[in-house]
UniProtKB/TrEMBL annotation:
InterPro entries: GntR_C, TF_FadR/GntR_C, Tscrpt_reg_HTH_GntR, WH-like_DNA-bd_sf, WH_DNA-bd_sf. Keywords: DNA-binding, Transcription, Transcription regulation. SUPFAM superfamilies: GntR ligand-binding domain-like, Winged helix' DNA-binding domain. It comes from the Bacteria. Residues 13-80 form the HTH gntR-type domain. This is GntR family transcriptional regulator. Transmembrane segments: none annotated. PROSITE patterns: HTH_GNTR. It comes from Microbacterium galbum.
Length: 216
């Protein structure tokens, strides 16, 4: 397992949080590749925690679908195939559409979305894909959180971690500034007609990801 940054864990549930946070960061940064094994004994040695604590941390990552537990293979970093990507995007579509329907009916503009778009523009201009992914996530989350539904936002964040994992390893072809321009237009259209805009946007991104995968 690659060397992971870690804080000194404290006893009890907090120790499992520290381990899960460190492994999650390694997964989402690409340091831990899809399919990489996540072994209790290695985490226990690395973080100075019990096997039970390491097992609890892995269970949390499995619940987030960032890791997959398979019989006779143990726990590994998740790998999303095309079918899993389509299913993920369909669920994102349902959550984001409902959140934006609530926002539209309230007649409000999400308060954080313009700042998130500015962050996306700056990240994209820098050429930093990790920063671009984080900013991209903030644009979508700003739209979802504006609905004021803690449950929708919680479920959406969990799905966004899966999407972040996928996009860490598959970078669709975008010219400089195109992602920001696309999302600026998407925000405008989604606030007017969420049912159509969200579906069209996510279907477009799904095609772009699959095409990039097949291109190698």
């Amino acid at each position: 397992m690659p060397r992971l940054a870690r804080d000194a864990p404290t006893p009890g549930p907090r120790a499992a949080d520290v381990v899960a946070d460190a492994v999650r960061a390694g997964i989402l940064s690409g340091e831990l590749a899809p399919g990489a094994p996540l072994r209790e004994e290695e985490l226990s040695d690395t973080f100075g925690v019990s096997r039970h604590t390491a097992r609890t941390a892995l269970a949390r990552l499995t619940a987030e679908r960032l890791a997959t537990a398979e019989p006779y293979r143990g726990v590994r970093v998740s790998s999303l195939d095309d079918d899993a990507l389509v299913a993920l995007q369909q669920l994102r579509c349902a959550l984001e559409t409902e959140a934006l329907r609530i926002v539209r009916d309230r007649g409000i503009r999400p308060p954080d979305v313009d700042a998130a778009l500015d962050e996306l523009a700056a990240a994209e201009a820098s050429g930093d894909w990790a920063a671009t992914l984080a900013a991209h996530a903030r644009v979508h989350l700003a739209l979802v959180e504006a609905a004021g539904s803690a449950r929708i936002a919680e479920e959406y964040r969990r799905l966004d971690s899966e999407m972040h994992l996928l996009l860490t390893h598959v970078r669709p072809a975008y010219s400089s500034g195109a992602l920001t321009e696309e999302h600026g237009a998407y925000v405008t259209e989604a606030l007017r007609d969420p049912e159509h805009a969200v579906r069209a946007h996510l279907e477009h991104s799904t095609r772009a990801i699959i095409e990039r995968r097949r291109a190698g």
